[in-house]
Amino acid sequence: MSEEQAREYRRSIDEPEAFWADAAQGIDWSQPWKGVLDDSNPPFYRWFAGAELNTCFNAVDRHVEGGRGDQPALIYDSPVTGKKAVFCYSELLERVARTAGMLAGLGVGKGDRVIIYMPMVPEAVFAMLACARIGAVHSVVFGGFAAKELAKRIDDAKPKVIMTASCGIEPARVIEYKPLIDEAVELATHKHEVCVVLQREQSPGLLVEGRDYDWSALYERSGEVDCVAVAATDPLYILYTSGTTGVPKGVVRDNGGHAVAMRWSMENVYGAHPGDVFWAASDIGWVVGHSYIVYAPLLTGCTTVLYEGKPVGTPDAGAFWRMVEEYRINVLFTAPTAFRAIKKEDPDGKLIDRYDLSSLRALFLAGERGDPPTIEWAERHLRLPVVDHWWQTETGWAIAANCMGIEMLPVKHGSPTRAVPGYQLVCLDEGGAEVAPGESGTLAIRLPLPPGCFPTLWHNDTGYVHSYLEQFPGYYNTGDAGRIDEEGYVWVMSRTDDIINTAGHRLSTGGMEEILAAHPDVAECAVIGVADEMKGQVPVGLVVLNAGSERSESDVSGELVAMVRAKLGPVAAFKHAVVVNRLPKTRSGKVLRRTMRKIADGESYQVPATIDDPAALEEIARSLGRVGLPRR
Ligand code: COA
Ligand code: AMP
Q1: Could you point out which of 344, 400, 494, 503 has its C-alpha 20 to 30 Å from the C-alpha of 184?
Q2: pLDDT, tens digit (0-9, with 9 covering 90-100), for 206-261
Q3: What proportions of the chain, in percent to the nearest 5, are helix, strand and coil?
Q4: Is residue 401's pLDDT more than 60?
Q5: Domain 3-309+389-469: top CATH class
Q6: Which of 176, 337, 345, 374 to mutate to test the pocket of ligand 1 (most atoms within 8 A of CB)?
Q7: Global pTM?
Q8: d(Cα 16, Cα 257) in Å, to the nearest integer?
């Protein structure tokens, strides 16, 4: 192992309290902690208990006080509307403090929840920071989710206020958010009091009298409010993510550990320093957006970039390079799927050569496995370090990465390199024993998780233990399968559960199955993730119709596609439902999803010894147009 990286890693594991106490010097606290790690109530651990701080103060105010007032804090670039704006730190402070005033005026205070369902506009960032400023807990919901999904989040988070915009803008269409909000509010059993609506000129929404407020008018009437101190262990936000069922999991992030981890990771993982321009080309609805569009760059005094556009089509596959040149971006972070999209349109990288990319130091990829062809293509055309790193909504920052700020290790394509300091990563067999180096198993992290990782699920300690900690006592089960080689390099290969990754978005096939099963003609169904050149995986539904159903396959299939779009959202990219006579199962009745996935992907497959009816597999192969695949 190389020295510097190994030394840092060892220190984080052998002396975690000293390690994180040092890292915590990067944050301003209004009250010091009583102990760095409170491990008195395992498996629940708390970092920096007793300390107080304000995350917004650390992300905004202190930079103004420290002389960065005139430095750009937030760059907004929106090719879909043709708008651009730059907010320096002192402007950001004013916007955030007044947005906080607006919330305070609506009665929102410490601990209250605020749902933010917004497109990629600066007001969404102001809203997040405004919540942090007054100790409210934000829950940002990605705009590509449908009303029903939003309603589930409203019912779990029980917000006092929903902040939204009248519409979102996709390259091909304007998405009216207001009817979605109205429907979600109607569907939810929790009756919240207030919606604040940012009216966008592309499609203003109809305000419901007595419930909806016009954002701009309210903002104009509001005064600035100051930061309130919160406990390090108080929640900063809830971010819902897909679990194995249709019920999303409310991942909680605390204030103190999160601020420390974000600040530490910027310098050590990304090699980014105060004053650098950092662009995470993601969406604020995802964890990458929370951590690396909003919190980490601002906590570090960097300039962050909010891009309302796509990697291709707005207007072309040179969009990212135009951004890098125009804003002198130093570090770019996106999902491999975005690069696959760029590569498809510009295979020879001709558009890359048209721009001055001399400011760019590195490209970071995450959200799904960094497939070697995509990484090699990016390396060849950018001639820069391309760093694949692995993380999850639950952890909030990288579990494994080539830590640029510590020491760049040799790259092995297909591996996100080694465990990041703080993460005691192991590979376990089904019984929970560590496997030998190079052998496959479940990737798990020995408790305690480092600062920044989720301390629990929102109001659901039992679910936290059950979903993540029960299978391997003393460890957090990442839900990812893979291996760790002799040199400590991690290979993340697939999920061990029913989660699939579509264009870097995490989706539950179980959740989709619940929707398909509700169709009156469907007797049973299975949804599998099938390999897709661009999106990594796309969901495909296999449905058995009720006996006697005379509906045509194309009618039912069309209805199912529409149902998933309406109930889960367009982001699911659910475009295929195939009618079959039966689903292949084991004798105990378990649907053979893994085998069907292999068939769909054109891979060789093994007919399980426990199969109930081998002919059912042949039929699936025929239905999916995959006849004559090799069988083992
Ligand atoms: N609000 C409403 N709808 C949205 C949306 C939003 N915020 N984001 C996406 N959608 C819709 C799209 O319009 C599309 O609808 P369609 O079926 O009518 O075409 C659908 O959801 C799927 O969108 P998307 O996943 O963006 O696919 P795409 O085919 O439009 O674009 C890529 C493909 C690769 C360009 C795009 O997926 C991408 O940029 N991915 C990067 C993802 C990412 O950053 N992930 C975060 C992890 S780091
Ligand atoms: P999300 O919580 O939406 O960020 O999705 C997390 C999941 O995405 C992980 O559990 C992995 O399955 C997958 N993932 C993210 N980054 C990587 C990566 N670099 N390599 C492999 N899988 C990844």
Answers
A1: 503
A2: 999 999 999 999 999 999 999 999 999 999 999 999 887 778 999 999 999 999 99
A3: 35, 25, 40
A4: yes
A5: alpha beta
A6: 337
A7: 0.94
A8: 13
What is d(CA 339, CA 334) in angstroms, rounded to the nearest whole number?
8
Whether 272 shows a pLDDT value over 60: the answer reads yes
Ligand whose nearest atom lies closest to the CA of 413 = 2
* Residue 41 reports pLDDT greater than 80: yes
- Which structure tokens are listed for 249? 């999991």
Using CB atoms within 10 Å of the CB of residue 615, give its burial: 0 to 12 exposed, 13 to 18 middle, 19+ buried. Answer: exposed
Q: To which residue do tokens 């449908």 refer? A: 146
- The atom number, within ligand 2, closest to the CA of 288 reads 4
> What mean pLDDT comes out for the span 493-521?
91
Q: pLDDT at position 631, please?
A: 47
Ligand 1 binding pocket includes 168 (Cβ within 6 Å): yes
Ligand nearest to the CA of 390: 2
Q: Which atom of ligand 1 is nearest to the CA of 504?
A: 45
Q: How much distance in Å is there from the Cα of 536 to the middle of ligand 1?
A: 13
Query: Which segments of the chain belong to CATH 3.30.300.30?
Result: 499-626
Q: What is the pLDDT of residues 273-299, one digit of tens each?
A: 999 999 999 999 999 999 999 999 999
**Residues near ligand 2 (Cβ within 6 A):** 241, 287, 366-370, 388-393, 416, 479-480, 492, 495, 501, 506
Phi, psi angle pair for 113, to nearest 5°? -100, 145
